[in-house]
Prior knowledge:
Residues 99-134, 165-200 form the EF-hand domain. The chain is mainly alpha-helical. The chain contains 14 helices and 2 strands; from the N terminus they run αααααβααβααααααα.
Amino acid sequence: MLQVNPDRRLTAQAALEHPWILRRRRTSPGAVDRGVAEALVAFGQSPKFRRCCLELLAWSLSTTDRAKVHDQFLSMDTEGKGTITRAQLKAVMTAKLRIPEPEAEVVFASMDSNHNDEVNYSEFLAAMVSTCIELHNSPVLALFRKFDRDNSGYVTAHGLRAVLGEGFEAEAMLDTADLDRDGRLSFPEFYSFLQGSPAAASARPPLVLRAASVLFGVLRFSPFRCCVRPAPARGEGQ
């Protein structure tokens, strides 16, 4: 790979097939946990808004979180190309869960967000968030604040369009998560929706989430709101 002359340099495919790389593939093809297969199905059956949010959250996962499912991805990527093909996903769905091929096709289509007939690592990670990977408060709060474009303490259809683009049906997406039917999402509503289960959606949110919701309301009307700033990232101002 370090050859200056491109004619003598290994291609990407040849590099993936090099013995040094192959020896480090610790998992055997097909060794996919049933829980991972079930998570893929649950992701495929989720509302479009939830899938969009989980795809955004996947980019903020820590190295530790990604490591929990890294080997599972390699097990499905039997050709070692860094992606999961339609046939590979169907093989796991039918073998692990006895899912008919048409349903497996729906799961694949929901994960293939860029429509290139392959599922890449970030798309796979999105399906693992809140199932095989715990949903942490901090990245969810950061995503909520991204959608809350006017700093009102709520997510509105306007905020969704501003982040996701005009091509998305913002009102319809918001409606799938709006538990109290007031046309907007509070932080507890948003968090519960991302949990993904009816029980989570109807449950009383954790104290830290209720406190965050109250804080948003206080800042909305506080005369000192303009003085509130997010903590600087590590290394800034040094």
